[in-house]
Amino acid sequence: MKPLLPPIHSIFTSSLPADPDTSNTSRSVEGAAYSWVSPTSTKSAQVICVNNALAKALGFTELSLTSNEFADLVSGNAPASSIQSYAMNYGGHQFGQWAGQLGDGRAINLGQYQLHSNQQNETVEQSFVTLQLKGAGQTPYSRRADGMAVLRSSIREYLCSEAMFHLGIPTTRALSLTLTGEEVIRDKLYDGRAAFEPCAVVARVSPSFLRFGSVQLPSSRGDLALLKQTVDFSINSDYPHLLTESKNITKEVYLNWFTKICERTAHLIVEWMRVGFVHGVLNTDNMSLIGETIDFGPYGWIDNFDLNWTPNTSDAAEKRYRFGQQAYIGQWNLFQLANAIYPLIEEAEPLQNILTNYNQTYQTLWLAMMRNKMGIDTNYEDAVDASNLIESDLQLSKDLEKILSLVNTDMTLFYRQLANISKNVNADDLILIKKHFSDCFYQPETITESYLTQLSLWLERYKQRLLIDNLADSQRKAKMDNINPCYILRNFQVQEAIELAEQGDYSRVLILSELLKTPYKQQAKYKEFESKRPDWATNKFGCSALSCSS
Ligand code: AMP
Ligand code: MG
User: Fold this and answer.
1) Is 92 in the pocket of ligand 1 (CB under 6 A)?
2) Active site residue 285
3) Phi-psi region of 147 (alpha: psi -120 to 50; beta: other; left: phi over 0)
């Protein structure tokens, strides 16, 4: 009889060295990229969400998704004899300090599935993806923690990774969300009021779960053999186009690999800036070697545009990972990766040059992104015009950010409204402008004449710029609405969905996951989700600030 579930492959474990110790005790693991470990079996698994399109791409039939075998697989209850699962070993810099070995303390990888259609990030050429269970129990990397994930943080990961995907941003994906039937104690506000919370497992999927920290750890230990094996594996499986015909991995290939990681990281962060995403914990163990968004913890989405905002309460004082600092942190993290691979290259200068180029790449991508957000065209044949326009468009973009910061302005609503401005608008008409953008302002009482005058002067410049392109208003709006989302995963909306789910009502989780499949298209039946953050959510925990407790 044909097996119900698609086959799992062991590409990662057959390519890299295993920890010979097979006990499941917290320890330092040296000379190995992973440890064998089985998920902890659960009491009564209940699958709450399944991502049908992704399941299909992985080879699951529709029928199999409602089977006990599927529930067992994604909750970690599949018979250990059928799956050789493992936890990965990695280190990382946390909040600027080297933290040593971290590893998958609660994530267990089941192995690789062959992709049946190109559902993943198109820049990644890998046709195999890894299925990983987050919250599946203790591993040798759990240190003193319990290996579990609570329902609220699992809902946040499931919804946010899928929202990212449908916004067109590189990300790990979510196949399913399953309640395990267990409970664990968490002090979610860090205020001493710990309480029991339901546990859940997110089955997540990526071509690679390798992090910057996967390379840093062997390097920090002077383990050159494992360092080389890890980097070579990343090149062979995720960057095969960098290999020459001889398949030899030379210094040049390592440098090209590092260049690609810098480019993908720059692209990723520009994309976060486009939609107003703040990762919240950009430690090097949360930075993907293939440039995907990975590890959804105390992240947040920008409501009012504020480059200084961070959702993470553990980072409230320093704000290291604030919205406007993500590009710089990307480079800081890449610098750590460069240090880690130095032994493979033994020359600092080419690495330094690549790191310097990151700034240029980021700036170029950022300007292109801002032009797209403003609906500005850039196809000019005349080189003189093009370079003048770069300067003036850059200034226009930066000045827009200043205006958005002057009063609390909803970023998402603002760009959708900017798309509705006619290039023939009378920008001097302050009353008209105030009315046009009125929905975007959080405190209408702060809208002074002086503010409106600044907005109007900017709009006049914008209008002049639009006249150069001379696109019809409708054409420009269509372009802008394809890049400026109508819906993002607003912090208060996910929090409302969590509070209902904690009462056993998963309907809002399902609605959000449906709605966020078409984030750029206004959907009449989801009108209520277009609104900006309500007053009650301004300072509410979960809506404006989150801890790392998960
Ligand atoms: P994160 O901040 O989620 O990126 O996690 C940092 C490190 O802590 C990683 O090594 C995680 O695997 C580990 N970790 C986080 N939460 C838990 C938990 N509940 N049990 C075991 N390890 C955990
Ligand atoms: Mg992490």
Assistant:
1) no
2) yes
3) left
Closest CA to 303 of 168, 378, 410: 410
Q: Does the C-beta of 106 come closer than 6 Å to ligand 1?
A: yes
With H, G, I as helix, E, B as strand and everything else as coil, classify residue 49: strand
Nearest to 184 by CA among 169, 200, 167, 161: 200
- Ranges under pLDDT 50 in the chain: 122-125
Our mutation pick for probing the ligand 1 site, out of 35, 141, 160, 184, counting the most ligand atoms within 8 A of Cβ, is: 141
Ligand 1 site, residue 549, Cβ cutoff 6 A: no
Distance CA 214, CA 287 (A): 10
Residue burial 269-278, b: 16+ Cβ < 10 Å; e: rest: bbbbbbbbbb
Q: What is the pLDDT of residues 201-254, one digit of tens each?
A: 999 999 999 999 999 999 999 999 999 999 999 999 999 999 988 889 999 999
Torsions phi, psi for 311 (to 5 deg):
-80, -15
H helical segments located in 130-200: 151-167
For position 123, what pLDDT does the model report?
45
Residue with tokens 């390519």: 15
Which residue among the candidates 72, 285, 295, 306 is catalytic per the annotation?
Answer: 285
Positive/negative CA dihedral, 296, 175, 232, 88: positive
Q: Which two tokens stand for residue 514?
A: 């449906």
pLDDT digits (tens, 9 = 90+) for 65-87: 999 999 999 999 998 888 999 99
Report how far residue 117's alpha carbon sits from residue 193's, in angstroms, rounded to the nearest whole number. 47
Please report which helix (H) or strand (E) contains residue 367, including its range. Answer: helix 348-374
The closest residue, in CA terms, to atom 23 on ligand 1 is 105
- Name the residue of 106, 321, 333 to mutate for ligand 1: max ligand atoms within 8 A of Cβ: 106
Do 173 and 54 contact (CB within 8 A), yes or no? yes
What was the pLDDT predicted at 126? Answer: 55
Distance from the CA of 105 to the center of ligand 1, in angstroms?
A: 5
Q: Which ligand number lies closest to the CA of residue 137?
A: 1
Name the DSSP letter for residue 106: S
How far is the C-alpha of 255 from the C-alpha of 344, rounded, in Å?
Answer: 10
Cβ–ligand 1 distance for 286 under 6 Å, the answer yes
Beta strands 107-114 and 91-94 are unpaired
- How far apart CA 82 and CA 73 sit, in angstroms, is 10
The separation between the first and the last C-alpha atoms of the chain, rounded to the nearest angstrom, is 41
Within 375-490, residue ranges assigned H as helices are: 383-406, 411-418, 430-437, 449-469, 473-481
Whole-number percent of the chain with pLDDT over 70: 98
Categorise residue 222: left if φ over 0, alpha if ψ from -120 to 50, beta otherwise: left
pLDDT reported for residue 118 = 55
Give the whole-angstrom CA distance, residue 206 versus residue 174: 9
How far, CA to CA in Å, does 77 sit from each of 37, 72, 85, 177? Answer: 13, 4, 12, 14
pTM above 0.70, yes or no: yes
